[in-house]
Amino acid sequence: MKRLLTTMALLLSPACAVAADRPNILFIFTDDHAPHAIGAYDGWLKDVNPTPNIDKLARQGMLFQNSFCTNSICGPSRAVIQTGKHSHLNGFMTNGNKFNGDQQTFPKLLQKVGYQTAMIGKWHLGTDPRGFDYWQVLPGQGDYYNPFFKTPKGRVKIEGYCTDIVTDLALDWLKEQRDSDKPFMLMCQHKAPHRTWMPPLRHLHLYDDVEVPEAPTLFDKWKDNASPARFQEMEIDRHLHLLCDCFGPEAEGFDVNKAKTDRSGYKNKLRMTDEQRKVWDAAYVPKNEAFLKANLKGDDLIRWKYNRYIRNYLRCIKGVDESVGRLMGYLKEAGLEENTIVIYSSDQGFYLGDHGWYDKRWMYEESMKMPLIVKWPGVTKGSVNTDLVQNLDYAETFLDLAGAKISDDMQGRSLVPVLKGETPDDWRESIYYHYFEYPSVHMVAKHNGIRTQRYKLIHFYQFDEWELYDLEKDPDELTNLYGKPRYADLTGVLKRDLEELREHYADNTDTSVMPAEWRKQFRQ
Ligand code: SGN
Ligand code: CA
What we know:
Blueprint: H1 2-12, E1 24-30, H2 52-60, E2 62-64, E3 67-68, H3 74-83, H4 87-90, H5 106-112, E4 116-122, E5 134-138, E6 148-151, E7 154-157, H6 162-177, E8 184-189, H7 256-261, H8 265-270, H9 274-294, H10 298-333, E9 340-346, H11 365-368, E10 372-375, E11 383-385, E12 389-390, H12 394-401, H13 416-419, E13 430-435, E14 447-452, E15 455-460, E16 465-470, H14 488-504, H15 516-521
Helix pairs in contact: 5-12, 6-10
Bound molecules: 2-deoxy-6-O-sulfo-2-(sulfoamino)-alpha-D-glucopyranose and calcium ion.
């Protein structure tokens, strides 16, 4: 009798279900990969064909056109994914925070129901990963060349190119450490294509002979925006550094010692082995000489910097796309393809010269959007979904896929019905956004806001300035409708809804206006 009861208890325990019952989850995550730099998203870079392997995933999966983060910055986005809670509740509001690993996370909950969990690559949450049977992560931002990795046993340096190494480590784990009696959840997280965009050596000449289109808003002067857009520090023109970001020629009077201490491209180049640097210089030195000769000024110089930046960014993405190809190849070879759900996503979007910028942070479309493609064999079949979804939903989705209970205190919703093509009638009609890092690098003012399928209202509360956009008529967000009498009623409704969302998500953080004398100081 006792034996029978034990057997029954085991059968009822989800931890005991055999691997085949529940899908494996492979989460491929990158850093700063804007959806419009993925071919399948059909943006203005699609003709460059930047991502054939990711596009293939989209043909077999579901591509989310309206996928957004809650706070467009690295660590915070990752903390939202771990917890299924907005930044103000998980405590990781800015990159300077440290993640409290004692709190509930989805990997811990997956372990409880019998999943084997692993985390490889960029983590960027300040404290050591928790809830993983295996982890090997880049310290902080990590390096493109010859990076260090942190493991439970200490630090190791691995020679080579970061994207390739992270892929190798993920494949090694799948081949050698995977427990075939359990379903797995593997997070394979790349540093690329983060600043300072350093491509793999094999791709330094990729796109040399291709005309890469220009961002349609490259020369935006933010005439209609509230003041924060004019006081940022992320312009291709004034802030993208010719040497440290673009690997251009060393300018006269350039302080090499300072560059060595910065987290700049110059310092990163110094990490290369002599062999690596030789290949690098062979690619860039002749181009830099031609650049010096051309003596570009004004818009031509902006165009040159844009071109150097976008090509290196896309070359980094080529490395990522190859990683996706290798991982998919292995799943097939190992007979894991049919029972593994593959997710491709990135922590936020990015400006690819859009509005004259690089970087992210703003609630504008380019940086608030996250790519999200989910391939669920037997379920998804190459469709495009336009429901409003967020990184807030990932934890819930993974738990649901694993047949685990979704914790009541999580704030998002499972995407499982959406993936099955059965979006619930009461799916969200608006999303809440809050960015907290100011003053800080790139000087993007704090703001919160609401986005519906059609409209977006943004409040730069420290300066008490607002923006309102009609995304249907103005997808590039160039015409600020805030304060226009015709939009007064709509503004009132959106303000009320924003307040309701703030309450709904229990965001009690301080959104007061800065004292006038401080504000002045930031407007000089
Ligand atoms: C670094 C980058 C910034 C970037 C932040 C945050 N400068 O400071 O451009 O905004 O990280 O990025 S760098 O020259 O050091 O690359 S995040 O992805 O970690 O949020
Ligand atoms: Ca990022």
